[in-house]
Amino acid sequence: MKVLQEKITKHGQVISGRILKVDSFLNHQIDPELMHQIGLEFAQLFSSDEITKIITIESSGIAPAVMAGLHLHVPVVFARKRKSLTLNDDLLSSTVFSFTKNETNEISISKKYIKENDRVLIIDDFLANGEAASALAEMVEKANAKVMGIGIVIEKSFQKGANKLKDQGYRVESLARISSLADDKVTFTSEKMEELI
Q1: I need a surface site. Which of 20, 171, 189, 193 has the fewest CB within 10 A?
Q2: How many domains does the chain have?
């Protein structure tokens, strides 16, 4: 997705050759127009999959997931990282390790929001090691629903997440694929390179 790559190149900041900071448009301050285009792109990619529900994880996945839900005309459910008084029983839960925060969280979704036979699209902002997407997929399967695909805004393709998810049989669609953050520079995976792999 060219507009996303341009935004990353112009506003993204590489930290220590491992972390891409995109808080000016994706996960702190949000660019609504860009999110609208991202949502439309996901909707087009999964338009023939008869999606009935989108799930994501709080909080950075919410904006792209809501925009995709708007275009696909389906509800969006987000997994919470902390339990509250209103989210305390009859839960689907899993644990997820955050690469950027270096912490493990238990995430939960109320069972009433994912039903058997739902056709679920998982959306998240980043894919590094695949922990968040795997945890969300596990919850979908616990509900006897079906994961139709995983939509990722930014994939760090030099890490193992995409291959791990594909090896588990999931369709993964990433809008921007980064092959390297070496020398504090963002390098994108080219279409021609993908064909050779």
Answers
A1: 193
A2: 1
Answer yes or no: is pLDDT of 39 > 90: yes
pLDDT, tens only, 71-110: 999 999 999 986 665 666 788 989 888 766 778 888 999 9
Place of tokens 């997820």: 96
Q: Closest by alpha carbon to 25, among 15, 13, 34?
A: 34
- 3-state DSSP helix/strand/coil % of the chain, to nearest 5: 35, 35, 35
Residue 5 phi/psi, 5° resolution?
-60, -40
11 closest CA partner among 107, 154, 141, 114: 154
Residue 194's pLDDT band (boundaries 50, 70, 90)? Answer: very low
